[in-house]
Design a protein that fits this description.
The complex is a heterodimer of chains A (491) and B (532).
Chain A lengths: L3 H19 L3 H21 L16 E11 L2 E9 L1 H20 L7 H20 L3 H22 L4 H30 L6 H8 L4 H18 L8 H8 L2 H24 L3 H27 L4 H21 L3 H32 L15 H14 L7 H16 L4 H23 L14 H19 L2 H8 L10
Antiparallel strand pairs in A: 1-2
Chain B lengths: L3 H4 L3 H18 L5 H22 L32 H20 L10 H20 L3 H19 L6 H32 L4 H6 L7 H19 L6 H9 L2 H33 L14 H25 L3 H22 L2 H30 L12 H4 L1 H15 L5 H16 L3 H27 L11 H6 L8 H4 L1 H19 L2 H16 L3
Helix pairs in contact in B: 2-3, 2-5, 3-4, 3-5, 4-5, 4-11, 4-14, 4-21, 4-22, 5-6, 5-11, 6-7, 6-11, 7-9, 7-10, 9-11, 10-11, 10-13, 11-12, 11-13, 11-14, 12-13, 12-18, 13-14, 13-17, 13-18, 14-16, 14-17, 14-21, 14-22, 16-18, 16-21, 17-18, 17-21
Classes of the chains: A mainly alpha (491), B mainly alpha (532).
């Protein structure tokens, strides 16, 4: 069998280098890279050995695994180990989709296009690496590798306050990674795992005392929580989003936030079940706080992009809630939610970026009635908003429905908190649309025109996926739950 | 026939000695051309490096191996008190010293050829390196301190060799006064230990750790020795001299002081303090006093080392954060790096010693490289302030990228040697469990702190627009549109090649550290188990 994952990694690595070197023609190289990447992910999905029927267990089994020794000394064995299961496949699909959408959307980027598209490709390479790593060092390495290109994307192509935002982003997430690294190292050395491999850590961690598991879980959780982000470690996110270029925002919201959730599932929830069990109440409190606080803050925003950023925090709070439930349905809901949010927030960030390009402002109050002059843009913004507030037949609905169902199963009437919050946020989104899209014409210059072809293509792709997976969520669900469990230690 | 038949086991040392003598002899004969003198130094250090690597068991160079394998890591016979002994960890350090010397010698081939003083510079460089090689084979306290003295005297002179620069002279004066003080403290400590144990042999001291009749002498002796050596390693609070000296020295000399000679202190720490640390580890945290029970050194000794390590990292980083001049910032960051290395000694296990040694290698590459870039940039006419480096990365992308790699490595960003070394070191700390985990936390938080000032430099270099009238870029402005490519001629080939070599090594060893980590780790195991 071909080493698919290494081939994809190599594709992205070569593509990154070629894009950097291509200068003015970088967009073509980036497009080719992302198209090949998407095709390879398609093949990977097609060859994924899904089992018929729901196995009832979300304990992962990995396919397409590869393991090569990397560092091997008496007391430390680190491998280059990669592999995928249903959960990581969904995130890989998200990476491939968002990469090609971002490249197409950013087609008009004229400021140092070689570096811009190179950094976009590099970010996706890092995310892909995180999703396929089955070794702690490799995981951490890709995790950190995402940081650097995003730092440059914000710092060079960003808005007026970009330097502050770039530095804040870097420092917040880097400190968090460090705490996570201590947690991961402790996981290896306290459990007595023979190597840094996921499988050996997974097996060894079963023997850890619950109290040790709790501490390890907290250390890991802190690292992942900042990426999530959860209240009170969220303040880097609005700054980073507002200052980042649109492509940067898309990758940030669509992919980087997912790293936190993925990492939590893969390295904390699966590995340290007793740890999750004992910190569950804390996680619930944090999740509810994040849900409420994110939506309260989003109500107070006048800037379109900030609105989307804060509602992202709100959504990620629901993801945390679903993960914390520690049930199969909750985990499934969390993955679905993250996929949905990845697509939808990318769409919304693109739409608000386009609003900014066309009208020179993102201030909700100073815009109005843009639909007649820009029907395509309005359609995209509306599709994104409706999907975000959970309209049935769009992707947000199955995700949020399963999350609320899981919450009802686990916590009963506490589900009212996220539900009420959702209703309020939905109302706010509708009000925003009413003002910006349909109200009296305001802030629209006489020569206003609709989207350029590349922006509408990029967003159109995401809208299509929103509808497709909204109508057929089973396409994703089958991938997530049909994980082969044979050969898995401890099962 | 191998070289051993006429050079004995001392081929590297003799090569350097021959280089020193040849350079000074040629100087007397008025042959002082840079190409000749520098060439001798480059060849001598490279050959010596090859010989050391051969002695470490690298088969392709076996022709140059001069030490019989059985006398490496040999436990001395009972009661024997050898002055020197070959340990594989010592050989690793010899290799690191020679690597630093080779890099500096190669880079210095780009000195302005009209400048006088090349023979003095290269002669002293080789002499200092010779002393460093002797440190790495010492097994007696007096031999060790005398070898350190050889290095020190040569480096005092190196700092001031240009003779005309008042800053250099001031730096040399400070360096000398502090150095003399450090020597006095070290020898006093050694004499107290001799009073307590009746020997200055390091093996015997290590073996006698827990049986002694005058514990107070031991306490004072180790304390004085610690203070004396701490000056060399620039541990806080013995660090204040280092910044002024690195700042005032010629750039290539700063590179050698920070990247090279400082590391003798680390190995001296290994030699002197590993014994007591191991004894503490053997007793365990619930044990009694280390030395006979009446002096409560015991675990608190380790705790003190750990506290100084954390203090050194933190103070160095915080002060680096406040600096406006590039060279002073690098000097403070160099101090903080010494704190990381001390973590290894504090823990004292073989993994930790190996991690600290890898950190030494990383530091040799990163710090030597960074100071060389500073020298190269200064030679282009850019000022000493960090803000003077505005836009340099955009206008000179290759040089900027190389420097960025060094800074990222110093900050511990993955896929660089700086990350690999910290990863191994902090893994060793976590693996040792107990309160050592907090050393890893402190070290990691410190490396997060250091990201602030390294990222600031990156920001200045890559995000800020270059100053309008930058002399280094004058050619570019005249040359027309677009950022110009890197003119290698402007750097000089020696500097260009060295900087490129260092950048490549930083990444290559960062991606696949196994190449160096394997030998270092097995050397560390032998070293720790030597007299245990």
């Amino acid at each position: 069998m071909l080493p698919w994952l290494s081939i994809i990694l190599a594709t992205l690595a070569v593509g990154t280098v070629a894009t950097f070197a291509a200068g003015a023609r970088a967009r073509w190289v980036a497009l080719a890279t992302s198209a090949i990447f998407l095709a390879e992910v398609g093949l990977l999905l097609a060859s994924y050995p899904g089992w018929p029927g729901y196995s009832g267990s979300l304990v992962p089994g990995f396919s397409d695994t590869e393991t090569y020794s990397w560092i091997s000394i008496a007391w430390m064995h680190v491998d280059y180990a990669v592999g995928v299961d249903g959960i990581s496949l969904v995130f890989i699909l998200l990476t491939a989709v968002l990469q090609i959408a971002t490249v197409v959307y950013s087609w008009g980027e004229s400021q140092r296009p070689g570096a811009y598209f190179g950094l976009v490709t590099l970010t996706c390479l890092g995310c892909f690496g995180v999703f396929v790593s089955l070794d702690i060092l490799l995981f951490f390495l890709f995790w950190e590798a995402v940081l650097v290109p995003m730092f440059f994307l914000i710092g060079y192509w960003g808005g007026p306050n970009r330097r502050y935002a770039a530095l804040k982003f870097f420092v917040y997430t880097h400190v968090a990674s460090i705490v996570m690294l201590v947690g991961l190292l402790a996981l290896v050395f306290y459990s007595g795992a023979t190597s840094f491999d996921f499988s050996s850590v997974y097996a060894a961690a079963r023997g850890l005392a619950p109290v040790v598991q709790t501490f390890l879980f907290l250390a890991l959780f802190f690292g992942f929580a900042v990426k999530f982000p959860i209240v009170p470690f969220h303040t880097w996110l609005p700054d980073a989003h507002v200052e980042a270029p649109t492509g940067g925002s898309v990758l940030l919201a669509g992919l980087l936030l997912k790293l936190g959730g993925y990492g939590l599932i893969r390295w904390a929830v699966e590995v340290l079940p007793s740890g999750l069990h004992s910190v569950q109440p804390l996680l619930f409190v944090i999740a509810f706080l994040t849900i409420i606080w994110g939506s309260v803050l989003s109500l107070a925003q006048r800037d379109l992009k900030r609105l989307v950023a804060y509602s992202s925090i709100n959504h990620m709070g629901i993801v945390l809630l679903a993960i914390a439930l520690d049930s199969s349905l909750g985990l499934l809901a969390a993955v679905l939610l993250m996929f949905a949010h990845g697509i939808v927030s990318a769409l919304l960030f693109m739409a608000s970026g386009s609003v900014h390009h066309q009208y020179g402002t993102r201030d909700i109050a100073s815009l109005g009635g843009i639909t007649p002059s820009a029907p395509a843009l309005s359609t995209m913004l509306m599709a994104g908003s409706l999907a975000s507030l959970g309209l049935p037949a769009l992707i947000g609905f199955p995700a949020e429905f399963s999350a609320f169902l899981a919450t009802w199963n686990g916590l009963g009437y506490w589900v009212l908190i996220p539900l009420v919050v959702l209703v309020v946020t939905a109302a706010f989104y509708l009000w925003m649309m009413q003002r910006v899209l349909f109200g009296a014409k305001k802030g629209v210059p006489a020569d206003a025109h609709d989207l350029p072809w590349y922006e509408s293509t990029g967003m159109g792709l995401l809208v299509a996926l929103t509808v497709l997976f909204g109508i057929l969520p089973s396409l994703l669900v089958n991938v997530i739950v049909n994980s082969p469990i044979k050969g898995w230690p401890g099962t | 026939m191998t070289f051993s038949s006429f050079a004995g086991p001392f081929l590297p040392e003799l090569l350097l000695l021959a280089g020193v003598l040849l350079i000074f002899l040629l100087d007397v004969l008025h042959v002082s051309r840079l190409e000749v003198v520098g060439g001798i130094a480059v060849v001598a250090t490279l050959l010596a490096l090859a010989s050391v690597i051969a002695d470490l068991g690298f088969a392709p160079l076996a022709l140059l191996a001069t030490i019989p394998a059985r006398s490496i890591d040999a436990v001395p016979a009972a009661g024997a008190a050898p002055l020197f002994a070959f340990t594989s960890l010592g050989l690793v350090f010899q290799g690191l010293f020679l690597l630093a010397a080779f890099l500096v010698a190669l880079a210095s081939m780009s000195r302005p050829s009209a400048e006088r003083g090349a023979p003095i510079f290269y002669g002293l460089l080789l002499l200092a390196t010779l002393g460093m090689l002797l440190v790495a084979i010492a097994s007696d306290l007096i031999f060790l301190l005398l070898a350190i003295e050889v290095v020190s005297i040569a480096s005092y002179l190196l700092v001031a060799y240009t003779r005309k620069d008042p800053r250099g002279l001031e730096a040399a004066m400070k360096f000398f006064v502090i150095g003399a003080l450090s020597t006095v403290l070290s020898f006093f400590g050694a004499s107290l230990l001799f009073g307590a144990y009746g020997t200055t042999n390091l093996y015997l001291l290590r073996a006698a750790g827990t049986a002694v009749s005058y514990p107070i002498l031991v306490l004072l002796g180790y304390a004085f020795l610690f203070a004396g050596l701490a000056f060399k390693v620039t541990l806080v609070p013995f660090h204040a001299w280092a910044v002024d000296v690195y700042d005032g020295s010629p750039d290539d000399v700063s590179a050698y002081l920070a990247g090279g000679t400082k590391k003798i202190g680390i190995f001296a720490f290994f030699l002197v303090f590993l014994g007591p640390v191991l004894a503490v580890n053997a007793v365990g945290s619930s044990g009694y006093g280390l030395f006979g029970g009446s002096v409560a050194l015991g675990p608190s000794f380790q705790l003190a080392l750990g506290a100084i390590a954390v203090l050194t990292m933190t103070v160095g980083n915080v002060l680096a954060l406040l600096q406006k001049e590039m060279k002073r910032m690098l000097a403070y960051s160099s101090i903080s790096q010494a704190g990381y290395m001390l973590i290894g000694i504090t823990i004292g296990t073989a993994p930790a010693i190996g991690g600290a040694t890898l950190q030494v290698l990383a530091h040799v590459l990163m710090k030597t490289g960074a100071f060389l870039v500073v020298g190269a940039v200064a030679a282009l006419g850019v000022g000493p302030l960090i803000s003077d480096w505005r836009g340099l990365g955009q206008r000179r992308p290759l040089l900027g990228t190389a420097f960025a790699l060094m800074l990222l490595s110093l900050a511990g960003v993955p896929l660089t040697i700086g990350f690999a070394s910290k990863f191994v070191l902090f893994s060793a700390a976590v693996a040792a469990q107990g309160w050592f985990v907090w050393l890893a936390v402190a070290g990691l938080l410190n490396s997060a702190l250091s990201v602030f000032y390294y990222a600031r430099v990156l920001r200045v270099m890559f995000f800020d627009a270059p100053p309008a009238a930058d002399p280094a870029l004058a050619g570019a402005v005249v040359g027309g549109a677009g950022p110009p490519a890197l003119p290698v001629g402007g750097l000089g080939w020696g500097r260009a090649v060295t900087i490129a070599l260092i950048a490549v090594l930083i990444v290559a060893l960062g991606v696949y550290p196994q190449v160096v980590l394997g030998p270092i780790q097995s050397a560390a195991y032998h070293f720790v188990s030597l007299g245990a």
